[in-house]
Amino acid sequence: MLSKLQNTLNSLSSKKSLKYTLYISAIIIFFALILVPPIIGIVIKAPAMQSFLKQPVLVNSALGAISNSFIIALIVAALDLIAGVPLAWLITRGKSRWLSVLDTFADIPFVVPTAALGYSILLFWSSSGGISTLFGSSLISPGWLLVMLLHFTFSFPVVVRVVVGAMLDYKMEYERASRTLGAPPLTASRTVTFPIIKPSLIAAFSLAFARSLSETGATFIVAGLVFQNGPVFIQNLSNGLKAGTISQATYEGGTVFASLILIVVSLIIFGLIRVLGQKLTLPFGKGLPSFEKKLSYKKAAWSRNSIALFVFIVIVLIPSLFVALPAFQAIATGSTLAQALMGQGIWSSFWQSLFLSYSLAAIVTVLGILTGIPMAILISRKTFGKLPSTILDLLINVPLIVPSIALGVSLKFFWQGIPGIPEFLLLVFAHLAITYPYFVRSMSAAMERINVDMEEASRTLGARPFTVFKTIVLPITKYSILSGAIIVFTRSVSETGATLAVTSNLVTAPVLLVKWVNSVRGIVAPIAGVNALTVGLACGFLILFSFIILLVLRLLTRKGKI
Amino acid sequence: MPDVRVVNVTKKYGKLYALDNVSITIHDQEYFSLLGPSGCGKTTLLRLIAGLIEPDSGEIYIGDRRVDKVPPEDRDIGFVFQTFALFPHMTAWSNVIYGPKVKNYDAKQAETIGHEVLELVKLNERLNAYPSELSGGMMQRIAVARALAAGAKTLLLDEPLGQLDAKVRNEIRYEIRRMAKDLKLTAIHVTHDQAEAMSISDRIAVMKKGKIVQIGTSQELYMHPNSLFVAHFIGESNFLEGYVTKANGESEIELRQGLVVKAFNQMNIKPGERVVLAIRPETCEMKKGHVASENCLFGRVEKSTFEGIVVRYEVRLENGDRFVINRPSLTEEWSKIGEDVTITYPLDKAHLFPYPESGLAEEIKV
Ligand SMILES: Nc1ncnc2c1ncn2[C@@H]1O[C@H](COP(=O)(O)OP(=O)(O)OP(=O)(O)O)[C@@H](O)[C@H]1O
Ligand SMILES: [Mg+2]
Fold this sequence. Notes:
The complex is a heterodimer. Chain A has one domain: Orthogonal Bundle (MetI-like fold). The two termini of chain A are 19 Å apart. Chain A is built from 28 helices and no strands. By secondary structure, chain A is mainly alpha-helical. In chain A, helix 4 crosses helix 16 and helix 11 packs antiparallel against helix 23. Chain B is α+β, with helices and mostly antiparallel strands. Chain B is 24% helix and 35% strand. In chain B, helix 4 crosses helix 5. Chain B folds into two domains: 227 residues, Rossmann fold; 60 residues, CATH 2.40.50.140. The chains are: A mainly alpha, B alpha+beta. At the A-B interface, helix 9, helix 10 and helix 15 of A face strand 6 and helix 3 of B. Magnesium ion (MG) binds next to helix 1 of chain B. Adenosine-5'-triphosphate (ATP) binds next to strand 2 and helix 1 of chain B.
């Protein structure tokens, strides 16, 4: 049965017309589902900018906020790379069996729903209950520093994921060759390993950068009233509209203005990264090898690993998990746990939402892989020529750059215009749009590193394109595919902003958690039965289940069963 | 001076002994080959010498220095990888001068060295091409040039010719040997091709299942194999099973169906013991008809194959054993299928071995 299917796929895959049909449908899907919905609302409302532009004070504050966005995104993405690469190194090169677990831990900040994550970071760094208890006063108060910490935290997993995938797919022989030629380990990495996995390093940087640019919900929580970046500016406009302090036209104009500038400038930056990134080579650094030699050996490696672990645990892991801390209290007291496990009261809706979230994430992941792979091939293999592939490569970033609040509004606008679509499908489309770029980015970077030779070799041995893909491309890039799938899955499980915008009846886990968090923070009317304990336990469950799913997935691939 | 000494080295992967208590000394400026079937541990041994993997136990010396705790970059070795491992992001030229550069030579020096080694490998074109744009032969030369440019006195080559076609392979193998000799290098060359090993090596170590079976020059291995495995792996042998019936001086062996032949019994195998007599196809004479003489076997031709220089006959002996024999194709009249023949073999070139405990087929399995 399976082999029959394979035969059919095989004979179909060598038909030119079919191949192009596949590619073209990938492009159509991309435009119709991924690219257009997130920006249509913005583009259509562009004329609303006129009235906004007449208010110089607001325009200035928008421009200031947007430059904050770019400054923070650039710094954060760079810091993420600096901290994430050593951790990825440790995960892939270390010998301990526990590294798979560490690897999975690195995904956690991505699993925590963004709003809960913001709350968690706030609790940890600046509330009296967090790390500040050690210092007597609030260690870091809301503002730009806290925003940077938050962004560092939530974009860190992307970098680790993409770089780990790249390092696992990397052929160690190159590094060994470099060592036998006299290069100490650090020199070998700098002159051979990093240049070879450069496409993935660039992809990691771009993804972290984009993620930092667009995140709204969590940023708003930790920004306080003292700091604005682009998305927070839009959120403030939206709040102002609700409070009646600004007009509908100003709100729309401001949202469109900020979003458009963010999109256009980041596309330019991405274009530059892509063009310059290919030319960028690290200087050989005469004299550096002997310096690196001193650094390379055991002690240096030990301290590098320790610092990487320390940064990860103290700045990324604990602050993200902090919100779930009351879970232990809940387990200790027992009654909340018992209620939760039996699905009593508020908990029945929790379990439903959890089930919805995981089913949704699974579907989105499968669809993302199916639609993403042809696109990754198009981009990395330049099937339709260099320019089209560059343009596609730039465009897939768009859903990442649009501030998530604007994205939500835009998606809603687009999909509500099409009547009769079930809400679940709306959710699938929305999540697909948001997660798609992650998969394609990490996959196309991986494919760029595959020697076309190998594919050609396999073709000449009589393999049809589908077999080539299955026997050559898939095994060589399987870790990158896994990495991409994990990002899609976790991002879908935690997505809040856009989900809120497109749904009215369906409640995913993050949406439910945001309601609960808001109730605990006193922002909305209190929900009966919801307190810090239940929020902690709920976050705890979400994190635990995601952790288990990811760990199992990872162990399965490690054993080479995929 | 870089003698390379490996002393009691063991390397395990899980339960598998990739190397089992191996000791070997390779002399300064020797061209040495590690030869053996796939999976016998050749690459493992070479990588241990290079420092790419660490031994579980044992010692490794290069020159007077014990190196088994020394990282590869400090062992002063050059390594040519089976897949070449040319850096894909660098041009051929940058690959070649990578070694001098990481060793902090100044640009001029690096350039001089680069040109010198490229001269040696006779390559002076397409230096600005990337590895993916080069032919297999060019990649091979660049890989060797790169290893030489690092200035090492010990050159380790892991099946450096494996990826080349037969013709190019035959040319390049002599060139590599010549270069190693000119530069006075100690070279260790891994291969599973016995013709390659025999044609270029000063000495060869034959390996099997993580152990070294025999070390010697090509002639020694060919003329005096110390085991059935070597007799089978180096060149080719006919194996006739039997029992020793008389054991002083020229022993007598009773083959299957009571056929009695003579053999030198260098190992002093006692009467009654089960043995295998190994005779190389090219050492025998063959006459038409059944003509009795010393050390002769009667048989009938079942198959003949023209192989260029020789004709290869498969003969069914009168006791039912199969026997292969090669005869010159140009200087002799060919025998036909179905013809009766008499085979004579020289006593001093037939080797007698005890029957292996694990069985003959298992012993010579590669
Ligand atoms: N990293 C590894 N992990 C586990 N087993 C290994 C590893 N490297 C080698 N082995 C095993 O050790 C044994 C020796 O391998 P080695 O590569 O040295 O063989 P080889 O003689 O070079 O073979 P070939 O001619 O096929 O290259 C083999 O059985 C191989 O499967
Ligand atoms: Mg090998």
